[in-house]
Amino acid sequence: MEARLDLFNNPLAGKLFKHFNSAGRVITESALPAVTQELVKIRASQINGCAFCTDMHTKDADAAGESATRLHMVAVWREAKVFTDAERAALELTEQATRIADAAGGVTDEAWANAAKYYDEDQLAALIALIAVINAYNRVNVIVQQPAGDYVPGMFG
């Protein structure tokens, strides 16, 4: 399987991803817990059907020491006992923001208030930026049908 467009060698895509990656670096360096960041990236990627990002972020989380049990349970986090209340709040916000077109009201006040119980303003800013950035990456990869399975943690620097 090959991608419809070679994003890794296209000059315009390279310029675009340089900016995406810069935004991602700001988020990575924020006070939002790294484990929460990976869970959010995995869940949004699952919802969007982005195989490339799901492959990348599950492998990155595994390499960072995340347990296989928690990784396997991300898709069913509501029923899983392995996530903290703060992680659950972030996953709920991720789902609602990723499925924003499915709900006329967008993100509910309840989901926002719950996230705000666990994260300060800077962490909330990082969380919403992360949700936006991973959704952008997901959409690009789904549109071009970027193949998955070959990612090696750290291969993008």
TrEMBL record:
InterPro entries reported for this sequence: AhpD-like, AhpD_core, CMD-like
Residue span(s) of domain Carboxymuconolactone decarboxylase-like: 24-95
SUPFAM superfamilies: AhpD-like (SSF69118)
GO MF annotation terms: peroxiredoxin activity
Superkingdom assignment: Bacteria
Alphabetized NCBIfam families for the sequence: ahpD_dom (TIGR00778)
UniProt protein name: Carboxymuconolactone decarboxylase family protein
Lineage, opening ranks: Bacteria, Bacillati, Actinomycetota, Actinomycetes, Kitasatosporales
